[in-house]
Hints:
GMP Synthetase, Chain A, domain 3, 3-stranded antiparallel sheet, 3-stranded mixed sheet, 30% strand, globular
Amino acid sequence: MVKMNMIYEGSLRCRLTHGPSGQQIITDAPVDNMGRGEAFSPTDLVAAALGSCMLTVMGIAAQKNNIDLNGTTAQVHKEMITTPIRRIGKISVTLQMAKGIDPSKRTLLESAATTCPVHKSIHPDVQMPIEFNYPD
């Protein structure tokens, strides 16, 4: 279990503290929802968590299989919908894979990414198209 603490600081801003490390994150409501948009919104963190979880779990698989994943990047786009309620409608992830990954290892890495805990925790109504790009 990981303990995290949050405090509402006013003006739709919260300060989050990670118990084990003491690291902090500020969240703001987005501009399109009465906020200032000066930091990640809570739903931005969900989308960012997906991308970073995919990279992390691929990194674990890469370490176990002696694959150099250094330089792999993820770009995440989050789209909100308002009907029937305001929620995340789509999170698109594009992974630009590192150079030199053996084609026979691609399925292993892609499976790791799409079975990461965050991916499996997001409601199935949220569309999550994922693209893996390998350099020539």
